Amino acid sequence: MLLPGATIGMLGGGQLGRLFTIAARSLGYKVIVLEPDANSPAGQLAERHFIASYHNETVLDLFGQQCDVITTEFENIPAATLDRLAHYCPVRPAAQAVQVTQDRVVEKNFVQQCGLAPVPFAAIRHTADLEAARQSIRFPAILKTARLGYDGKGQIQVATAEDLAAAFEQLQQVDCVLEQRIELEREISVILARNIVGEVRCFPVAENVHRQGILHQTIAPARISDTLANAAQTAAQTIANALDFVGVMAVEFFVTTTGEILVNEMAPRTHNSGHYTLDACLTSQFEQQVRMVCGLPFGDTQQHTPVVMTNLLGDLWGDSQPSWNALLESPASKLHLYGKLAARPGRKMGHFSTLAPQLDTALVEADRVFARLSQDATA
Ligand code: ADP
Ligand code: MG
């Protein structure tokens, strides 16, 4: 067990790393961030910030020497980096678990090996693969780059089989996956923690509303049956076990209009759809990550209040900040900002959680506050 006072290394300096840093520092740990951006959300709050690329071996060695354990907030850390750091101290999660989630084709094959259903897909690596994909996938479909996509980036809607070649061209013929477009009843996600000896605790299932491929709101608990919630948690646990995962991870699911659940994707880290735990659960996903990487017991994942989490994207920023009054005047809405200097459309700048004794009330209030912030942005 690594007790408070120990040093945790964090690979990546984004908002997930920042919220982790806050949790770790309140528990009395030191945090060192490795992240190329000099003004990163996590680097601002860490004890120390190495500003270097994830490939810089000299810095990796220095970083490794100073940490007692290393974790990550970013799935695209090169496996070689994680392996190199593992010579100095435990790296949780390990390279092999992170790697599976770095490539959509590898990830979907893995989901199938777990006995679970991904969205119907076909791998496309060369133009020669296009014909087989046209035959096996029903259109409309979505073509996604196999690697490095996030927030809907690297995705093209493909209406008919005839449009596929042009879409592949548009994505520069990098490795891709073609997915059938699913008619969604809703989207849900499971955030879970798994410890060194393989025990698992799940947070309550969250319901996610996306706009233009980017998470807009998380509603928790999800408005689904217990049977469906249990099925999602069991599936997520199966995946975590198969990955031999240590830390906090997320699994995103589609619920189809026929009531089936399909695995959309996994994240080997805390997740935007788990931000609701900060204000609505006894333990946040970030504290739980600290506990898992340091070998501490689980914190209680129980949710104490219904909550709606709403993302604040750069679109709400004009020349200046949004006028926060609408939000600050809502007494049970909690603002979290990530310290990002430049606001760009689609960039996640912060979020707010709205709590209420009834979920419906929280939803109405969150929408009211968000509408006022949006009005101000367009005024
Ligand atoms: P990202 O890595 O950008 O999160 P996702 O594959 O999760 O990529 O896609 C983002 C969102 O786009 C999903 O949450 C969902 O709303 C929508 N989407 C993606 N794939 C499909 C699909 N096959 N059918 C229906 N909607 C989809
Ligand atoms: Mg996603």
Q: How would you describe this protein?
A:
This protein has 379 residues and is of the alpha+beta class. The protein has three domains: 7-91, Rossmann fold; 120-180, Dna Ligase, domain 1; 184-378, D-amino Acid Aminotransferase, Chain A, domain 1 (2-Layer Sandwich). 30% of the residues lie in helices and 26% in strands. The chain has twelve helices and 17 strands. The chain has helices at 15-26, 57-66, 79-85, 95-100, 104-113, 130-136, 164-170, 226-243, 277-280, 285-293, 325-328, 359-378, and strands spanning 7-11, 30-34, 48-50, 69-72, 121-124, 141-145, 155-158, 176-180, 184-194, 200-202, 206-211, 214-220, 247-256, 261-267, 307-313, 333-337, 348-355. Strands 9, 10, 11, 12, 13, 14, 15, 16 and 17 form a nine-stranded antiparallel β-sheet that branches. Strands 3-2-1-4 form a four-stranded parallel β-sheet, sandwiched between helices. It has a four-stranded antiparallel β-sheet with strand order 5-8-6-7, sandwiched between helices. Strand 9 and strand 10 (200-202) form a beta hairpin. Helix 1 (15-26) packs across helix 10 (285-293). The protein is globular. The N and C termini lie far apart (54 Å). Bound molecules: adenosine-5'-diphosphate and magnesium ion. The site of adenosine-5'-diphosphate has 16 residues, from strand 9 and strand 14.
